[in-house]
Amino acid sequence: MARTFTAKAHSHHDLPTYPILPFGWQRDAFIHLVERVAPHLGVGRAAAHTWTRLAAMTRPTDWVEPDREPSVYAAASELAKMLALSEARLRAHTARLEQAGLLERRTAANGSRSRQAGTGLFFSGVIDRFSDLLALDAQLTTARHKAIYLRGQRSTHWRCLRRALEQLRDVASQDARVQAMEDAWAAWPRADRLHAMTLDALAAHEREADTLTRAALDLLATLRKSVDQPLENERSHLQDTSEDFSLSCDARTEGRRFAVEPTLGHPSRPRRVSSTTDAEDRRKGGPNAAGREWLIKLGPERLFRLASPEMQFYLSGRADPERLRFHDFIWTAERRVLELSIHSSAWSDACTAMGEDGATVAMLILDARRDDPVAPIISPGGYLRGMTRAWLQGHLNMMGSLIGLSERRRREEAL
Prior knowledge:
Layout: E1 9-10, E2 13-14, H1 27-37, H2 45-56, E3 71-72, H3 76-83, H4 87-99, E4 104-106, E5 120-122, H5 124-128, H6 130-172, H7 176-186, H8 199-226, H9 275-284, H10 293-306, H11 309-316, H12 326-339, H13 344-368, H14 380-392, H15 398-414
Antiparallel strand pairs: 1-2, 3-5, 4-5
Helix pairs in contact: 1-2, 1-6, 2-4, 3-4, 6-7, 6-8, 6-12, 7-8, 11-12, 12-13, 13-14, 13-15
Protein backbone atom coordinates (compact mmCIF):
# COMPACT_ATOMS: atom_id res chain seq x y z
CA MET A 1 0.00 0.00 0.00
CA ALA A 2 1.27 3.48 -0.81
CA ARG A 3 2.53 5.19 2.32
CA THR A 4 2.20 8.83 3.31
CA PHE A 5 4.62 10.49 5.69
CA THR A 6 3.98 13.53 7.87
CA ALA A 7 5.84 16.47 6.43
CA LYS A 8 8.22 18.48 8.59
CA ALA A 9 7.70 22.15 9.18
CA HIS A 10 9.78 24.31 6.89
CA SER A 11 9.97 28.11 6.93
CA HIS A 12 7.00 28.23 9.31
CA HIS A 13 4.80 26.48 6.74
CA ASP A 14 3.69 22.85 6.61
CA LEU A 15 4.84 21.18 3.42
CA PRO A 16 2.25 19.10 1.57
CA THR A 17 2.70 15.35 1.61
CA TYR A 18 2.07 12.99 -1.28
CA PRO A 19 1.61 9.23 -1.63
CA ILE A 20 4.82 7.38 -2.40
CA LEU A 21 5.72 3.94 -3.66
CA PRO A 22 6.20 1.25 -0.98
CA PHE A 23 9.68 0.48 0.28
CA GLY A 24 11.71 -1.40 -2.32
CA TRP A 25 9.72 -0.07 -5.28
CA GLN A 26 11.15 2.45 -7.76
CA ARG A 27 9.68 4.42 -10.60
CA ASP A 28 10.73 2.13 -13.44
CA ALA A 29 9.47 -1.05 -11.75
CA PHE A 30 6.13 0.66 -11.15
CA ILE A 31 5.98 1.77 -14.78
CA HIS A 32 6.36 -1.86 -15.86
CA LEU A 33 3.59 -2.85 -13.46
CA VAL A 34 1.22 -0.27 -14.95
CA GLU A 35 2.18 -1.38 -18.47
CA ARG A 36 1.11 -4.95 -17.65
CA VAL A 37 -2.29 -4.03 -16.22
CA ALA A 38 -3.17 -1.06 -18.46
CA PRO A 39 -5.02 -3.16 -21.10
CA HIS A 40 -7.29 -4.45 -18.34
CA LEU A 41 -8.10 -0.90 -17.28
CA GLY A 42 -9.51 -0.13 -20.69
CA VAL A 43 -6.36 1.63 -21.89
CA GLY A 44 -5.25 0.86 -25.44
CA ARG A 45 -1.69 0.08 -26.40
CA ALA A 46 -0.99 3.51 -27.87
CA ALA A 47 -2.36 5.36 -24.83
CA ALA A 48 -0.45 3.05 -22.48
CA HIS A 49 2.76 3.75 -24.40
CA THR A 50 2.10 7.47 -24.07
CA TRP A 51 1.68 7.06 -20.29
CA THR A 52 4.94 5.13 -20.07
CA ARG A 53 6.86 7.85 -21.87
CA LEU A 54 5.25 10.61 -19.80
CA ALA A 55 6.01 8.79 -16.54
CA ALA A 56 9.62 8.31 -17.68
CA MET A 57 9.96 12.12 -18.00
CA THR A 58 9.52 12.54 -14.25
CA ARG A 59 12.33 12.44 -11.72
CA PRO A 60 12.71 8.97 -10.16
CA THR A 61 13.04 10.47 -6.67
CA ASP A 62 9.64 12.15 -6.97
CA TRP A 63 7.98 8.73 -6.69
CA VAL A 64 9.59 7.84 -3.36
CA GLU A 65 9.90 11.16 -1.50
CA PRO A 66 6.77 12.25 0.42
CA ASP A 67 7.36 15.98 -0.12
CA ARG A 68 7.51 15.62 -3.90
CA GLU A 69 4.96 14.85 -6.54
CA PRO A 70 5.87 13.24 -9.88
CA SER A 71 4.66 15.52 -12.64
CA VAL A 72 5.26 16.81 -16.17
CA TYR A 73 4.94 20.57 -16.73
CA ALA A 74 5.76 20.87 -20.42
CA ALA A 75 3.12 22.50 -22.60
CA ALA A 76 0.89 20.22 -24.63
CA SER A 77 2.40 21.44 -27.89
CA GLU A 78 5.92 20.63 -26.66
CA LEU A 79 4.88 17.21 -25.36
CA ALA A 80 3.24 16.40 -28.67
CA LYS A 81 6.52 17.13 -30.47
CA MET A 82 8.53 15.10 -27.97
CA LEU A 83 6.19 12.13 -28.31
CA ALA A 84 5.82 12.46 -32.10
CA LEU A 85 2.06 12.81 -31.75
CA SER A 86 -0.43 15.35 -32.96
CA GLU A 87 -1.86 17.58 -30.23
CA ALA A 88 -5.29 16.09 -30.88
CA ARG A 89 -3.95 12.54 -30.41
CA LEU A 90 -2.10 13.55 -27.25
CA ARG A 91 -5.28 15.13 -25.82
CA ALA A 92 -7.21 11.95 -26.61
CA HIS A 93 -4.59 9.79 -24.89
CA THR A 94 -4.33 11.94 -21.79
CA ALA A 95 -8.12 12.11 -21.51
CA ARG A 96 -8.29 8.29 -21.64
CA LEU A 97 -5.47 7.95 -19.13
CA GLU A 98 -7.15 10.38 -16.77
CA GLN A 99 -10.40 8.48 -17.10
CA ALA A 100 -8.57 5.26 -16.15
CA GLY A 101 -7.03 6.98 -13.12
CA LEU A 102 -3.45 6.78 -14.37
CA LEU A 103 -2.78 10.53 -14.33
CA GLU A 104 -4.40 13.85 -13.46
CA ARG A 105 -4.48 16.98 -15.59
CA ARG A 106 -4.33 20.31 -13.83
CA THR A 107 -4.45 23.37 -16.06
CA ALA A 108 -4.84 27.09 -15.67
CA ALA A 109 -7.89 28.88 -16.98
CA ASN A 110 -6.13 29.46 -20.28
CA GLY A 111 -4.97 25.83 -20.45
CA SER A 112 -1.32 26.61 -19.70
CA ARG A 113 0.97 24.47 -17.55
CA SER A 114 3.84 25.58 -15.35
CA ARG A 115 5.70 24.49 -12.25
CA GLN A 116 5.12 27.85 -10.59
CA ALA A 117 1.38 27.67 -11.08
CA GLY A 118 1.23 24.01 -10.04
CA THR A 119 -0.33 22.95 -13.32
CA GLY A 120 0.59 20.03 -15.58
CA LEU A 121 0.21 16.25 -15.61
CA PHE A 122 0.46 14.58 -12.18
CA PHE A 123 0.91 10.95 -11.08
CA SER A 124 0.05 10.98 -7.37
CA GLY A 125 -3.32 9.42 -8.06
CA VAL A 126 -1.88 6.33 -9.72
CA ILE A 127 0.63 5.91 -6.87
CA ASP A 128 -2.31 6.00 -4.47
CA ARG A 129 -3.77 3.04 -6.40
CA PHE A 130 -0.64 0.93 -5.98
CA SER A 131 -2.31 -1.82 -3.90
CA ASP A 132 -5.18 -2.25 -6.35
CA LEU A 133 -2.85 -2.34 -9.34
CA LEU A 134 -0.55 -4.85 -7.66
CA ALA A 135 -3.51 -7.10 -6.80
CA LEU A 136 -4.74 -6.89 -10.40
CA ASP A 137 -1.28 -7.82 -11.66
CA ALA A 138 -1.19 -10.86 -9.36
CA GLN A 139 -4.64 -11.90 -10.58
CA LEU A 140 -3.56 -11.60 -14.20
CA THR A 141 -0.38 -13.56 -13.52
CA THR A 142 -2.41 -16.38 -11.96
CA ALA A 143 -4.76 -16.41 -14.94
CA ARG A 144 -1.81 -16.44 -17.36
CA HIS A 145 -0.24 -19.42 -15.58
CA LYS A 146 -3.59 -21.20 -15.59
CA ALA A 147 -3.91 -20.62 -19.34
CA ILE A 148 -0.39 -21.99 -19.90
CA TYR A 149 -1.31 -25.06 -17.88
CA LEU A 150 -4.56 -25.62 -19.80
CA ARG A 151 -2.81 -25.26 -23.15
CA GLY A 152 -0.22 -27.78 -21.99
CA GLN A 153 -2.92 -30.25 -20.99
CA ARG A 154 -4.71 -29.77 -24.30
CA SER A 155 -1.41 -30.52 -26.03
CA THR A 156 -1.09 -33.72 -23.98
CA HIS A 157 -4.60 -34.79 -24.99
CA TRP A 158 -3.83 -33.94 -28.63
CA ARG A 159 -0.79 -36.19 -28.75
CA CYS A 160 -2.42 -39.07 -26.91
CA LEU A 161 -5.59 -38.88 -28.99
CA ARG A 162 -3.63 -38.81 -32.23
CA ARG A 163 -1.81 -41.97 -31.21
CA ALA A 164 -5.05 -43.66 -30.17
CA LEU A 165 -6.77 -42.73 -33.43
CA GLU A 166 -3.84 -44.08 -35.44
CA GLN A 167 -4.30 -47.44 -33.74
CA LEU A 168 -8.09 -47.29 -34.02
CA ARG A 169 -7.75 -46.90 -37.79
CA ASP A 170 -5.74 -50.11 -37.88
CA VAL A 171 -8.33 -51.98 -35.82
CA ALA A 172 -11.65 -50.63 -37.12
CA SER A 173 -11.23 -47.93 -39.73
CA GLN A 174 -14.86 -48.28 -40.85
CA ASP A 175 -16.35 -48.08 -37.36
CA ALA A 176 -18.73 -45.10 -37.13
CA ARG A 177 -17.51 -44.35 -33.62
CA VAL A 178 -13.95 -43.98 -34.85
CA GLN A 179 -15.05 -41.66 -37.63
CA ALA A 180 -17.04 -39.57 -35.15
CA MET A 181 -13.95 -39.23 -32.98
CA GLU A 182 -11.86 -38.28 -36.02
CA ASP A 183 -14.40 -35.55 -36.89
CA ALA A 184 -14.50 -34.25 -33.33
CA TRP A 185 -10.69 -34.15 -33.21
CA ALA A 186 -10.52 -32.31 -36.55
CA ALA A 187 -12.85 -29.66 -35.13
CA TRP A 188 -10.47 -28.78 -32.30
CA PRO A 189 -9.04 -25.26 -32.59
CA ARG A 190 -5.42 -25.07 -33.70
CA ALA A 191 -2.80 -24.62 -31.00
CA ASP A 192 -2.16 -20.98 -31.98
CA ARG A 193 -5.88 -20.21 -31.61
CA LEU A 194 -5.85 -21.29 -27.97
CA HIS A 195 -4.09 -18.05 -26.98
CA ALA A 196 -7.11 -16.01 -28.06
CA MET A 197 -9.60 -18.04 -26.01
CA THR A 198 -10.95 -16.83 -22.68
CA LEU A 199 -9.91 -18.80 -19.63
CA ASP A 200 -13.40 -20.27 -19.23
CA ALA A 201 -13.57 -21.30 -22.88
CA LEU A 202 -10.08 -22.81 -22.71
CA ALA A 203 -10.98 -24.78 -19.58
CA ALA A 204 -14.15 -26.08 -21.23
CA HIS A 205 -12.22 -27.14 -24.34
CA GLU A 206 -9.59 -28.91 -22.23
CA ARG A 207 -12.32 -30.89 -20.46
CA GLU A 208 -13.87 -31.85 -23.80
CA ALA A 209 -10.45 -32.86 -25.16
CA ASP A 210 -9.78 -34.98 -22.08
CA THR A 211 -13.18 -36.69 -22.38
CA LEU A 212 -12.66 -37.49 -26.07
CA THR A 213 -9.15 -38.83 -25.43
CA ARG A 214 -10.32 -41.13 -22.66
CA ALA A 215 -13.23 -42.31 -24.80
CA ALA A 216 -10.81 -43.16 -27.61
CA LEU A 217 -8.56 -45.10 -25.24
CA ASP A 218 -11.55 -47.03 -23.89
CA LEU A 219 -12.82 -47.80 -27.39
CA LEU A 220 -9.37 -48.96 -28.46
CA ALA A 221 -9.15 -51.32 -25.49
CA THR A 222 -12.62 -52.71 -26.23
CA LEU A 223 -11.97 -53.22 -29.94
CA ARG A 224 -8.57 -54.81 -29.34
CA LYS A 225 -10.13 -57.31 -26.99
CA SER A 226 -13.00 -58.05 -29.38
CA VAL A 227 -10.55 -59.09 -32.11
CA ASP A 228 -8.31 -60.88 -29.61
CA GLN A 229 -5.28 -58.66 -30.29
CA PRO A 230 -3.01 -57.29 -27.57
CA LEU A 231 -2.74 -53.59 -27.02
CA GLU A 232 0.49 -51.93 -28.01
CA ASN A 233 2.98 -52.44 -25.16
CA GLU A 234 0.41 -54.64 -23.37
CA ARG A 235 1.76 -56.55 -20.39
CA SER A 236 2.03 -60.30 -20.61
CA HIS A 237 -0.86 -62.19 -19.03
CA LEU A 238 1.73 -63.70 -16.69
CA GLN A 239 2.36 -60.27 -15.21
CA ASP A 240 -1.04 -58.64 -15.05
CA THR A 241 -4.31 -59.17 -16.87
CA SER A 242 -5.80 -55.76 -16.08
CA GLU A 243 -6.37 -53.22 -18.84
CA ASP A 244 -3.30 -51.66 -20.35
CA PHE A 245 -2.61 -48.17 -19.07
CA SER A 246 0.62 -47.44 -20.90
CA LEU A 247 -0.57 -46.47 -24.36
CA SER A 248 2.28 -44.45 -25.80
CA CYS A 249 1.87 -40.69 -25.52
CA ASP A 250 5.39 -39.88 -26.68
CA ALA A 251 6.73 -36.34 -26.69
CA ARG A 252 5.38 -35.11 -29.99
CA THR A 253 4.41 -31.59 -30.88
CA GLU A 254 0.98 -30.70 -32.19
CA GLY A 255 0.98 -30.47 -35.95
CA ARG A 256 4.31 -32.27 -36.35
CA ARG A 257 4.75 -35.74 -37.73
CA PHE A 258 7.80 -36.94 -35.84
CA ALA A 259 8.66 -37.20 -32.17
CA VAL A 260 11.06 -34.71 -30.66
CA GLU A 261 14.52 -36.26 -30.66
CA PRO A 262 17.16 -35.12 -28.13
CA THR A 263 20.34 -33.49 -29.31
CA LEU A 264 23.92 -34.01 -28.22
CA GLY A 265 26.64 -31.78 -26.92
CA HIS A 266 25.20 -29.30 -24.42
CA PRO A 267 24.45 -30.15 -20.77
CA SER A 268 21.22 -28.16 -20.76
CA ARG A 269 19.88 -29.97 -23.81
CA PRO A 270 18.49 -33.49 -24.07
CA ARG A 271 21.08 -36.17 -24.73
CA ARG A 272 20.80 -38.21 -27.92
CA VAL A 273 20.83 -41.85 -26.94
CA SER A 274 22.30 -44.09 -29.61
CA SER A 275 20.79 -47.45 -30.43
CA THR A 276 23.83 -49.09 -28.79
CA THR A 277 23.34 -47.13 -25.58
CA ASP A 278 19.62 -47.81 -25.83
CA ALA A 279 20.16 -51.56 -26.04
CA GLU A 280 22.72 -51.49 -23.25
CA ASP A 281 20.35 -49.59 -20.97
CA ARG A 282 17.63 -52.12 -21.71
CA ARG A 283 19.95 -55.01 -20.93
CA LYS A 284 21.16 -53.48 -17.67
CA GLY A 285 17.79 -52.09 -16.65
CA GLY A 286 19.54 -48.80 -16.03
CA PRO A 287 17.87 -45.54 -15.04
CA ASN A 288 17.81 -44.28 -18.63
CA ALA A 289 16.35 -47.46 -20.11
CA ALA A 290 14.60 -46.60 -23.34
CA GLY A 291 11.00 -47.59 -23.79
CA ARG A 292 8.80 -48.15 -20.80
CA GLU A 293 9.09 -51.86 -20.01
CA TRP A 294 9.74 -51.18 -16.34
CA LEU A 295 6.76 -48.81 -16.20
CA ILE A 296 4.55 -51.45 -17.78
CA LYS A 297 5.64 -54.03 -15.23
CA LEU A 298 4.82 -51.70 -12.36
CA GLY A 299 1.18 -51.43 -13.41
CA PRO A 300 -1.28 -48.67 -12.57
CA GLU A 301 -2.18 -49.96 -9.11
CA ARG A 302 1.43 -49.94 -7.92
CA LEU A 303 2.05 -46.45 -9.24
CA PHE A 304 -1.17 -45.30 -7.61
CA ARG A 305 -0.08 -46.66 -4.23
CA LEU A 306 3.27 -44.88 -4.51
CA ALA A 307 1.70 -41.51 -5.38
CA SER A 308 1.16 -38.70 -2.90
CA PRO A 309 -2.31 -38.27 -1.34
CA GLU A 310 -2.83 -35.25 -3.60
CA MET A 311 -2.07 -37.26 -6.73
CA GLN A 312 -4.20 -40.14 -5.50
CA PHE A 313 -7.11 -37.72 -5.00
CA TYR A 314 -7.03 -36.65 -8.66
CA LEU A 315 -6.38 -40.14 -9.96
CA SER A 316 -9.28 -41.57 -7.96
CA GLY A 317 -11.57 -39.07 -9.62
CA ARG A 318 -10.67 -40.40 -13.05
CA ALA A 319 -10.87 -44.17 -12.59
CA ASP A 320 -10.37 -47.03 -10.15
CA PRO A 321 -6.65 -47.72 -9.63
CA GLU A 322 -6.68 -50.91 -11.66
CA ARG A 323 -8.34 -49.14 -14.60
CA LEU A 324 -6.06 -46.10 -14.74
CA ARG A 325 -4.15 -45.40 -17.95
CA PHE A 326 -0.86 -43.60 -18.19
CA HIS A 327 -2.72 -40.69 -19.75
CA ASP A 328 -4.40 -40.24 -16.34
CA PHE A 329 -1.01 -40.06 -14.64
CA ILE A 330 0.25 -37.48 -17.15
CA TRP A 331 -2.92 -35.40 -16.65
CA THR A 332 -2.44 -35.53 -12.88
CA ALA A 333 1.28 -34.75 -13.04
CA GLU A 334 0.60 -31.61 -15.06
CA ARG A 335 -2.00 -30.53 -12.52
CA ARG A 336 0.51 -30.96 -9.71
CA VAL A 337 3.09 -28.96 -11.68
CA LEU A 338 0.69 -26.03 -11.52
CA GLU A 339 -0.25 -26.52 -7.87
CA LEU A 340 3.38 -26.80 -6.73
CA SER A 341 4.22 -23.55 -8.57
CA ILE A 342 6.76 -25.35 -10.75
CA HIS A 343 7.63 -23.16 -13.73
CA SER A 344 6.23 -24.48 -16.99
CA SER A 345 9.71 -24.45 -18.53
CA ALA A 346 10.95 -26.91 -15.90
CA TRP A 347 8.17 -29.33 -16.83
CA SER A 348 8.73 -28.78 -20.55
CA ASP A 349 12.46 -29.44 -20.19
CA ALA A 350 11.75 -32.63 -18.24
CA CYS A 351 9.31 -33.86 -20.90
CA THR A 352 11.78 -33.09 -23.69
CA ALA A 353 14.61 -34.90 -21.93
CA MET A 354 12.79 -37.88 -20.44
CA GLY A 355 9.65 -38.05 -22.53
CA GLU A 356 6.24 -37.48 -20.98
CA ASP A 357 6.28 -40.93 -19.38
CA GLY A 358 9.60 -40.36 -17.63
CA ALA A 359 8.72 -36.80 -16.63
CA THR A 360 5.43 -38.02 -15.19
CA VAL A 361 7.14 -40.65 -13.05
CA ALA A 362 9.68 -38.01 -11.97
CA MET A 363 6.79 -35.80 -10.85
CA LEU A 364 5.20 -38.72 -9.01
CA ILE A 365 8.48 -39.34 -7.15
CA LEU A 366 9.01 -35.64 -6.44
CA ASP A 367 5.47 -35.13 -5.18
CA ALA A 368 5.56 -38.20 -2.95
CA ARG A 369 8.89 -37.13 -1.44
CA ARG A 370 7.91 -33.54 -0.61
CA ASP A 371 7.13 -34.51 2.98
CA ASP A 372 9.94 -37.04 3.36
CA PRO A 373 10.81 -37.09 7.08
CA VAL A 374 14.53 -37.34 6.39
CA ALA A 375 15.05 -35.11 3.33
CA PRO A 376 11.90 -33.12 2.45
CA ILE A 377 11.85 -31.25 -0.84
CA ILE A 378 11.91 -27.50 -0.28
CA SER A 379 11.90 -26.31 -3.90
CA PRO A 380 9.88 -28.63 -6.18
CA GLY A 381 10.84 -26.66 -9.30
CA GLY A 382 14.55 -26.78 -8.50
CA TYR A 383 14.29 -30.47 -7.65
CA LEU A 384 12.62 -31.27 -10.98
CA ARG A 385 15.35 -29.38 -12.85
CA GLY A 386 17.93 -31.33 -10.87
CA MET A 387 16.26 -34.61 -11.86
CA THR A 388 16.33 -33.54 -15.50
CA ARG A 389 20.05 -32.73 -15.30
CA ALA A 390 20.74 -36.06 -13.62
CA TRP A 391 18.79 -37.85 -16.37
CA LEU A 392 20.78 -36.13 -19.09
CA GLN A 393 23.98 -37.15 -17.34
CA GLY A 394 22.76 -40.74 -16.97
CA HIS A 395 22.67 -40.56 -13.16
CA LEU A 396 18.94 -40.54 -12.45
CA ASN A 397 17.80 -43.88 -11.04
CA MET A 398 14.02 -43.54 -11.01
CA MET A 399 13.49 -47.25 -10.45
CA GLY A 400 15.62 -47.00 -7.33
CA SER A 401 13.55 -44.01 -6.19
CA LEU A 402 10.33 -45.95 -6.74
CA ILE A 403 11.71 -48.86 -4.75
CA GLY A 404 12.58 -46.40 -1.98
CA LEU A 405 9.03 -45.04 -2.03
CA SER A 406 7.67 -48.57 -1.85
CA GLU A 407 9.82 -49.34 1.20
CA ARG A 408 8.66 -46.11 2.83
CA ARG A 409 5.01 -47.00 2.22
CA ARG A 410 5.58 -50.44 3.80
CA ARG A 411 7.11 -48.85 6.90
CA GLU A 412 4.27 -46.38 7.20
CA GLU A 413 1.63 -49.12 6.86
CA ALA A 414 3.42 -51.23 9.47
CA LEU A 415 3.21 -48.49 12.11
